[in-house]
Amino acid sequence: MNCKNNDLAIVVRSALGPSTGLILHCLRLSPASGLRNLDGSFAYGPVWETDSYGLALCGNTHNLWMDADLRPLRDEPGADETLLWAGLPQESEVLAG
Q: What's the predicted TM-score (pTM) here?
């Protein structure tokens, strides 16, 4: 399982394209054992009840998401490798106008 209770998580895969990259709060593990996909098929696995911080998705701020579609945002032991793929920030000159 990717997420834990009270994790902030980012949506890494979504049938609702614009939802990818959305930050959610994982409130609790749902008793559901999966969700129905848009094509009618069923995806099995852990499901989270989430809060999207006021951003309504399909008219709701509380939604169900498959654990497989989320990645937690939390401190992990070890080195942060973000700079390896993102590069160092570049300083830019700001001109007051």
A: 0.70
